[in-house]
């Protein structure tokens, strides 16, 4: 993600519109047609603006306690028809409850909670994470 970790900051990363455009460009360059977008933590700043503007370009969306969910209204979320698996660890008491509170307005969502996992639930419980993810992917058209 531009501007996070050791990556250089990118001008595009400064606004939601720029982050949406950045992700749009990445998917275009990769030649991806209707991918499933998996969005853990900080990547929410990129994934959420894209989802709200171009959710119809995604086959599915898997938010994992992403940041930025409070930046959008329940009405905005209700307008998204992308199948969504809201996934988080039950030991993530920071971002997960807030993300769930906001993302539960997505009309085509289901929730998977990984018992005994923290914020990086995919690292804490990789088998449970993959089981939940693969179950979701199998249900997509």
From TrEMBL:
<keyword id="KW-0963">Cytoplasm</keyword>
<dbReference type="InterPro" id="IPR029058">
    <property type="entry name" value="AB_hydrolase_fold"/>
</dbReference>
<protein>
    <submittedName>
        <fullName>ABHEA protein</fullName>
    </submittedName>
</protein>
<dbReference type="GO" id="GO:0005737">
    <property type="term" value="C:cytoplasm"/>
</dbReference>
